[in-house]
């Protein structure tokens, strides 16, 4: 009986431990992604970047986290307290939930479901509520305008992202299971036949995550810091972690949808941790491209941001979502 109870306890605790370990790994990756961005930006701008805390500045993310942890949380007297504190927590939770269905290799995934892509789209849509709550609850004009901008931007580009993902699912010809999308790219990565869609997906990913040159909700010269202007200390850290977690998540989705996931260029499947390493290298390349774009292009006007979505990207995506299934049916 004792042996049976012990096995039952282990089987009940094991999934929880896996989830906690995955969250810790993602948060560490987010912390050092911020350091990588500061280092790469420094190199591109002919400066050193963080280099004082630890060897080559490797402990800088821990120092920044400690600073935010020890700071006093200042809450404006006119803010709606409940929603003001709930907004950053929602943003972080929804950004972490998306990692549940990401396959780190051909055998390791937290939650394997036939509708994994739909789960990601649903979670990303719910993440908008954190932005809306933060702008409204702060009772600040800057935060409110930033949340309105961000909401309009995210909803607009989610349409393009969803249609592009649907086109990739058409190529699969099966339920939108993320593992099957990766497996179907053994012979050829989708970035080769669907290169225009891959480029449009990357542009939409920049806008969806509020990254330069589409960082209009956080335009410092106009809106101070956008929807989290009034947040400080740990609530601000939650927004920060949620934003970079979303960037890494959409970089991983880009790799899974268009760059073959854990497959090597010649279609070889490496064992276990090596295939995860291949996936990590590809995600690092996409994240580096995010930084490269930030260092290269100036910020667009907000009207340009919306116009390019509804008059350029959306019509092109609708054209591809019609043409690709037609070509597939013709070839069959």
TrEMBL record:
InterPro entries reported for this sequence: NADH_UbQ_OxRdtase_su1/FPO (IPR001694), NADH_UbQ_OxRdtase_su1_CS (IPR018086)
Enzyme class: translocase
GO terms under biological process: aerobic respiration
Membrane topology: Multi-pass membrane protein
Keywords: Membrane, Mitochondrion, NAD, Oxidoreductase, Transmembrane, Transmembrane helix, Ubiquinone
Record bears the keyword Isomerase: no
Subcellular locations according to the entry: Membrane; Mitochondrion inner membrane
EC number: 7.1.1.2
Catalytic activity: a ubiquinone + NADH + 5 H(+)(in) = a ubiquinol + NAD(+) + 4 H(+)(out)
GO molecular function annotations of the record: NADH dehydrogenase (ubiquinone) activity; NADH dehydrogenase activity
Cellular component, GO annotation: mitochondrial inner membrane
Keyword Zinc-finger: no
Record-annotated membrane-spanning stretches: 6-35, 81-102, 114-134, 155-175, 187-207, 236-262, 274-293, 305-329
PROSITE patterns according to UniProt: COMPLEX1_ND1_2
Family classification: Belongs to the complex I subunit 1 family.
Protein name: NADH-ubiquinone oxidoreductase chain 1
Organism field: Allomyces macrogynus
Gene behind the chain: nad1
